[in-house]
Write a structure and sequence with these properties.
There is one protein chain. By secondary structure, this protein is α+β, with helices and mostly antiparallel strands. The protein has 9 helices and 20 strands. The protein has helices at residues 76-84, 90-111, 126-142, 171-177, 194-203, 264-275, 305-315, 363-373, 377-390; strands at residues 10-19, 22-31, 36-40, 51-53, 118-120, 148-149, 152-153, 158-161, 164-167, 182-183, 206-207, 213-222, 233-241, 247-257, 279-286, 292-300, 322-329, 332-340, 343-352, 355-361. It has a 4-stranded antiparallel β-sheet with strand order 15-16-14-17, with helices on one face. It has a 3-stranded antiparallel β-sheet with strand order 1-2-3, with helices on one face. A 3-stranded antiparallel β-sheet has the order 18-19-20. The N and C termini lie far apart (56 Å).
């Protein structure tokens, strides 16, 4: 894969290292044409995004202090040519080019420069090209159906740049993180760089706790720093979902409301479903000062939590929410149309491991046919279940 990039004198080496008691693999990009060996690890613990502008009036180019001495600036067009001649699949090449384009756009926006005037220093250098192309190849090779990342530890403190000291996370890292959940813990150092943020946010389907799974393989990648008492490693698990009926993660949003016009609750439910909720229900509760109130519970996919929270704050009178992430086990379902003496009725059929566990005629169909024939809804429901059993 590395040979296909056409970068003269570039190769990749790896060896086992110890990071605070954890054995891990350390990858190094060897560049004999420029600066020798660049220490890299799949932890984001590599060189920052550096921007170089060719215009002579630029005296404030954003460039973190380089640790490898390389000084080869490459623009997006040159990087695209390198990626396009690689042995990546067509899909992989498109993904890698898209990653670099996203990085360039972020840097151009931060520095208020046209995209064509932005040349990337370390990101354009061979070590970072190998990082991004290698990550695309590895994740394509693994072929995971779903990628779950933990919340991201960005570190704390500052990083030294041409401008002086910038707070952690650096501006490009912050922009690339988007809505990814972050936190800061451990020593006052930078733990997530733009390249790491770029890769994680591009591939993670969701963030949160470890999903229920059967572990097939575990890997540890080492960062360059050896932090005392805190292993500077990233850990990856590869495996299969633990159950044949896949458990999904959902977020439970909850609040209590005792000061809202009851007419609004119907509209609120519609707004929550529009925002991405998978279930909404209300429970009558008795609140402080002996006031009757409503307990609102909303189930939502993790990726839609922010949108649903916004809708709940906007369209109700609540001033606070609680949320927790839980596992949800659901039966597989399909709609099957059956013929009855009243007409066709759609039945929702639920199965587990192929066995039918429940059959429920669609209520709207039953109401419509009951109105047409002047019969009770329950008669149409019974006819629908009987027709399914006979079929």
């Amino acid at each position: 894969m590395i040979d296909s990039l056409g970068l003269d004198g570039v190769s990749v080496a790896h060896n086992r290292v110890n990071r605070s008691g954890i054995g891990a693999t350390k990858f190094r990009v060897i560049d004999t044409e420029h600066a020798g060996t660049h220490d890299q690890a799949y932890t984001g613990d590599h060189a920052h995004t550096h921007v170089h502008h060719d215009r002579p009036d630029n005296t404030h180019g954003h460039s973190h202090q380089s640790t490898n001495g390389a000084n080869h600036h490459r623009g997006l067009s040159e990087i695209t040519e390198i990626v396009e001649r690689s042995a990546l699949s067509p899909t992989g090449r498109a993904r890698a080019v898209g990653l670099f384009r996203r990085l360039v756009n972020v840097e151009a926006d931060i520095h208020q420069r046209p995209v064509e005037d932005v040349h990337l220093h370390e990101v354009g250098a061979v070590d970072s090209i190998v990082d991004i192309v290698g990550a695309v190849f590895a994740l394509e090779w693994i072929g995971a159906d779903r990628i779950v990342a933990s919340p991201l530890n960005v570190g704390s403190g500052t990083v030294v740049c041409a401008h002086g000291e910038l707070p952690v996370p650096a501006p490009a890292t912050t922009r690339l993180l988007g809505n990814a959940p972050i936190y800061a813990a451990g020593p006052s150092v930078e733990l997530l760089t733009p390249t790491g943020a770029l890769l994680i946010t591009a591939y993670a389907d969701t963030y949160g706790a470890m999903p229920a799974m059967r572990i097939a393989k575990t890997g540890y990648g080492a960062g360059d720093r050896d932090l005392k008492g805190r292993p500077n490693v990233v850990r990856a698990f590869v495996g299969d979902m633990a159950d044949s009926a896949e458990l999904e993660r959902v977020v439970v949003l909850e609040c209590e409301i005792d000061d809202m016009n009851p007419q609004i609750f119907g509209v609120l439910m519609d707004r929550l479903y529009d925002a991405g909720a998978v279930d909404v229900f209300y429970t009558a509760v008795q609140m402080k000062k002996n006031r009757p109130g409503t307990h609102v519970t909303v189930l939502v996919p993790p990726g839609r939590r922010e949108a649903v929270s916004t809708a709940l704050f906007r369209d109700s009178t609540t001033i606070g929410l609680r949320y927790s992430e839980v596992a949800r086990d659901t039966l597989s379902r399909e709609l099957v149309s059956v013929s009855t003496r009243f007409g066709d009725v759609r039945c929702k059929v639920a199965r587990r491991d192929g066995a039918v566990t429940n059959v429920a005629p669609e209520f709207d169909d039953c109401v419509r046919l009951a109105d047409q024939h002047g019969v009770p809804v329950k008669d149409v429901q019974a006819a629908g279940i009987q027709a399914y059993r006979e079929s």
